[in-house]
Amino acid sequence: ICWTNSAKFEQPPSIFAKKDDSVTIKCSHDDNSLPVMLWYQQKNENTSMNFIGYCLTSGNPVKEEGFKERFDLKRDGDVKGDLIISKLVSSDSAVYYCHSYCASREQAYFGAGTKLTVLGKFNKFNQKNPDILVLDFRILRAFYCNKRVTLVCLAEDFYPDHIDLAWYIDDKEESTGVAKDDSAKLNTDSNTYSISSRLSIPFKKWNQGNTYKCKVTFHYPKEKSNDGKWTTESSTRWESLTAPKRKSLHFFTFHRW
Questions:
Q1: Rg of the chain over CA atoms, in angstroms?
Q2: Among 67, 162, 216, 242, which is least packed, fewest CB within 10 Å?
Q3: What is 9-119's CATH number, 2.60.40.10, 2.40.50.180, 1.10.10.10, 3.40.50.720?
């Protein structure tokens, strides 16, 4: 019988590991009435999740085809579980979600996900911070003849591929009209990545003297700790663009810091 109304999950937000290493992604929650723990893999934000398998509080795990050889699932009591991936390859880079429920018709609860980045030929000397640029801004005509302005924020020349982009209008985060590349693009010549995000807004909203900011947060491994795991650090940079208060787009101020 399930009596839960909600469950709080804990997963590490990010993990870095090298090719051929093994990694353990831990998950825990605060509700001992949820006996089933399932795991999913998502390659990028706009693709469906791949079901890896599930494990009960006792018994052997059940794994899907494609995840039977290098993937293992373990439980540690009612509220903890591990996803273990061995002999890592580049294609294992993804976000991994744990998920629990009591019965198939009951509400399901998900963790926030852990982003696993499998490093190639990496050392502390070739980790690169992104070069961030508001690349383009122009009036577009959308469907129904509504005038819109599109701003493009481009982050490039970074490695590894672990970066977040967000838009702000007058210091308030904006999610409406935002579209991001499905995944970062690899430049095979330099072994670095680039990614862009676009903010589309009505012309009237642009023409009010608002300040538009692109926030880029880059996550990267700093060094190995005593247990052999990479410690993670983050750096944040901003770009801002102030819209003109007149109806012409030819007057604006542009700031970098």
A1: 22
A2: 242
A3: 2.60.40.10
**pLDDT above 50 (res 28):** yes
* Pairwise pLDDT comparison (147 vs 85), residue with the higher score: 85
Query: In terms of Cα–Cα distance, which of 2, 7, 16 is closest to 221?
Result: 16
Protein fold of 131-256: Immunoglobulin-like (2.60.40)
CB-based burial of residue 228 (10 Å sphere; 0-12 exposed, 13-18 middle, 19+ buried)? Answer: exposed
C-alpha 225 chain-centroid distance:
24
Q: CB 146: neighbour CB atoms within 10 A?
A: 11
Residue 43 vs residues 18, 19, 55, 93, 166: alpha-carbon distances, Å: 18, 17, 22, 7, 20
Residue pLDDT, tens place only, 57-67: 888 999 999 99
Helices (H), 25-130: none
pLDDT band at 97 (very low <50, low <70, confident <90, very high): very high
pLDDT 10s digits, 222-248:
766 666 667 778 888 888 887 776 554
| CA angle centred on 9, ends 177 and 30, rounded to 5° | 150
Q: What does the block give as tokens for 137? A: 């801004």
Residue spans per domain, the chain? 9-119, 131-256
**pLDDT computed for residue 73 by the predictor:** 95
Contact 129, 158 (CB under 8 A): yes
Q: Are 97 and 86 in contact (CB under 8 A)?
A: no
Whole-structure pTM value? 0.70
Q: Which among 206, 198, 203 is positioned nearest to 176, based on CA atoms? A: 198
